[in-house]
Amino acid sequence: MPRLPLALLTMTAAALLLAGCADSGGSPAGESTPESTPPSPSTSSAAASSPAPAPDSAGTSLTVDFSQDGTATTDTYTLECDGAAPAGDSAAPDPAAACAVLAAQGAALFAPPSADTMCTQMIQGMQRAHVSGTVNGEAVDADFSLTNGCEISRWEKLTGLLGPAEGTL
After folding, report:
1. Collapsed DSSP state (helix, strand, coil) of residue 99
2. Taking the CA of residue 95 as centre, how many other CA atoms within 13 Å lie in the half-sphere pointing to its CB?
3. I want to staple 62 with a disulfide (CB 3.0 to 4.6 A). Which of 35, 51, 79, 150 is the partner?
């Protein structure tokens, strides 16, 4: 039986590794794409049947508990949206950007990576955020961190809500 050259085996293994590490959108860090993410277990079955929920009269109302060091909450703020526009006293880092992405992609942005997703093992920072409330009338309750490639990608999709994924170690 012929043996494959070591270089070919190495390239094949690297390609498989990179394919497993890519996020579901396949876009480089920092770029956002209008993709659909599977709904989290905490979301309603309505989200599972519709990939991009349309804004409804319920609007978006979120509370973010932010932790700079990953342990104690250092800031709490809210985001209110009426469709793609900020409403009320929204105090998110960039309310207009947050409302726009939430109106376009909905509660799917709060879904955790699936258990079988391979994520790059890198830490960008110790920051954590817990987000709860409603997006287009749909309940969300999610945690965010900068502890691996999948989590960093989730954070970057919600930069307007969570702030830049420029962690400090």
Report:
1. helix
2. 19
3. 79
> For residues 136 and 65, what is the distance between their CA atoms, to the nearest angstrom?
20
Instruction: Return all residues near 57 (Cβ < 8 A) that are at least 6 apart.
Output: 137
Q: Which of 113, 109, 128 is nearest to 22 (CA)?
A: 113
Q: Which of 32, 29, 141, 40 is nearest to 94 (CA)?
A: 32
Model confidence pLDDT, tens digit, residues 123-148: 999 999 999 999 999 999 999 999 99
H helices, E strands: number in the chain: 5, 5
Strands (E), the chain: 60-67, 75-82, 85-86, 128-135, 138-145
Contact 113, 148 (CB under 8 A): no
Q: Is the pTM of this model over 0.90?
A: no
Asked if the model's pLDDT at residue 56 lies above 50, the reply is no
Are the C-beta atoms of 76 and 143 separated by less than 8 Å? Answer: no
Give the H/E segment covering residue 19: helix 6-21
20 token code pair: 């497993």
